[in-house]
Design brief:
alpha/beta, disordered C terminus, five-stranded mixed barrel
Length: 326
Amino acid sequence: MTGLVYKSTGSWYTVKTKDDSFLDCRIKGKFRIKGIRSTNPIAVGDVVDYEIEDTADVTTGIINNIHNRKNYIVRKSVNLSKQTHIIASNIDIVFLLITINNPPTTTSFIDRFLVTAEAYGIEAILVFNKIDTFDDATLDEQLFLQYTYESIGYKSLRVSAKENKGLEELKSLMKDKVSMFSGHSGVGKSTLVNALEPTLNLKTKQISDSHSQGQHTTTFAEMFDLSFDAKIIDTPGIRGFGVVDMEKQEVGDYFPEFFALKENCKFNNCLHKDEPHCAVKNALEKDEVPWSRYRSYLQILEGDEEHYRSDDYADDRKASDETRKS
């Protein structure tokens, strides 16, 4: 029998069956030693085969096969650098929720997430949340970030779950698709899901005043069916986003603005770092590509896992104020 994984708790998996019921399943031990380089061999969104197991008046299932995935989002843990974790699989579109200062979302985090989405062929859209809380300075920061990423080609939305702003456009993008919400703890993923589908009533928490960071409320990734013909995967908050399984020569290809310039570099294998006659560095000097993106690129290239939370766009924003006014 075949079903779709809706929830993973690490040892048990909730599978939706062909008759739309839910069955708790576990996996055979061999899945853990098949060479899958991940802390979780099965992820939410996986299509699996299972068999029924009846024990002590309880009906459960045993997963014995995972169907090939069309894509997945994978990250490397900052604390366990040799461990990887598949966040979700078989995704049509991913929404990265971004907040400016409650909590802050840095460009280094955004760029690492976008690189991974590019690498696995998943459309990524930036969702600037909590716009109802903005003062003038915060609004300026948000608009600059939006300007930066839209100029590269990424679509972005401005929403407020609290005031129901921007939700209809978001719904239209989600319709008939499997979507995933991701971002730091506290950016409002569960609150936004509740605004889209109030009957779900997912748990939410306030931001920690002492650290301006979110508190984990979603412990495990979980998929939900929504009333407007959409599926959403709500994920736990992520503090750092380590990039995995990329060769240095391919990292630049996942920065669309770098890839567009690549053919103008003198060397075919240009890393846009120390090579002469590099089109990316020339564009950088002319402020034709964002410095924050280039710094993120160098961090990924050099395996720098220590600066996820640094503010890489403050200088860019100040330097661009006059340009945007003209």
